[in-house]
Amino acid sequence: MKTLVENKNDNLPLIKVIFLVFAPTIVLTASYILLGQMQKTIPSLLLFYLLATLILFPIELAIIFNASKKEFGTYSLKSAFINQKKTNWKKILTYAALLFGFAGIVSATVGAFENWITTPISNKLAQIFPTYFDWNNFEYIRQYPKNMLIFTCVFYGIFNILVGPVIEELYFRGYLTSKISRFGKWSPVIITVLFSLYHLWLPLQNIFRICAFLPASYIAWKEKNIYICIVFHCLCNLISSIGFIVTVFAVK
Predict the structure, then answer these.
(1) What is the mean pLDDT of residues 226-238?
(2) What is the pTM (predicted TM-score) of this model?
(3) Number of domains in the chain
């Protein structure tokens, strides 16, 4: 297999990698909570993804582009493809499908167990934060006008199924993983844990996320092809998005 971009051997200190993981998501989450407290005119899910589109995704892309400028002389996505290799798409889709099936098993077992043990914490958080922030309170969500709900679901679908997973995988499994290559096979483990913790807006699903994404992260690292993780991530978000949309418009 041909290497797409040769390794520049430009490892970053782990503390800087941690900063690059959490600085953007802290800004996003703080903005989301602040604006959510100030207004309720649009659904919280729409507010979150609008802010992610304006804050999180541009910052992550900017970091990759600036790194590419420094390393290769031009603004591009090259720094997300360091030491990556071309892989047959049939192989990529097969891996992604198998990993997706495994994630389904993890969701039904580990995910269900994690939800059970974190229920007391969820209940306490529900007492602290307004109902507005609860994405699972569909009765509350359905109070918005139908055209607002349609726009929310379309926007959510596009950015949760395609834009978000692609950018996050380029950033985490591509750029950041290459910057800690000195850790060898522990690189995908470290990045998977950081990726899970980075979801500050969904703080009670870390065990599930780590168990579901670690095999994909490791295989993508071993095969040197982040497209495996991109397709897998898109599939996972596709199912969650369909479930949300169907439930929002469910007739009772």
Answers:
(1) 97
(2) 0.93
(3) 1
